[in-house]
Design brief:
about 160 residues; mainly alpha; about 5% strand
Length: about 160
């Protein structure tokens, strides 16, 4: 008595699905990284408007002379790095401020060279320093969680195994 065994596999189908995933994965990551850049930009703008630095501490107060100048001009005296609004408006989310600079890498920057100089002065050259352009570990975790959710959603939407 002879026994015949026939095995049928779907290996070609699985291979096709993996190739599809492999081809789409880099663009999904790039989209997620770009989205993370826009989210970081929003966090920087929000924190700065609230007068909070990178490490979630209040900015150092303005000097008394500068406060007098602000009062004379009728400007806000809260330390939020907002005088004319041009520096922070140079951080508007667009292709100049958030751009891809490498494989799965983006760069945030100011669209205007003059505002870049103003930010450098506020962040590095001025005493006291008001570090607003950057992020801490907590912000990194928030952005990382959002990135992970985005990637999971993209995989779910691809319906690889259906």
């Amino acid at each position: 008595m002879a026994i015949g065994i026939k095995i049928k596999t779907n290996s070609k189908h699985i291979e096709k699905r993996f190739k599809r995933l492999q081809s789409k994965f880099p663009s999904i990551i790039d989209k997620g990284v770009l989205q993370a850049g826009f989210q970081l930009l929003d966090i920087i703008r929000t924190k700065t408007a609230k007068g909070i630095d990178v490490n979630s501490r209040k900015f150092a107060p303005y000097s008394s002379g500068y406060l007098k100048k602000l009062n004379r001009e009728g400007k806000r005296t809260a330390v939020d790095l907002f005088y004319t609004g041009r520096m922070l408006s140079a951080l508007t989310p667009n292709n100049k401020t958030v751009r891809k600079t490498g494989k799965h890498k983006i760069t945030l920057g100011f669209a205007n060279a003059q505002m870049r100089q103003r930010a450098l002065y506020n962040q590095v050259l001025n005493e006291p320093k008001r570090v607003f352009f950057g992020f801490n570990d907590r912000t990194e975790k928030i952005i990382q969680n959002t990135f992970n959710k985005f990637i999971k959603k993209q995989f779910r939407d691809m319906k690889l195994w259906v």
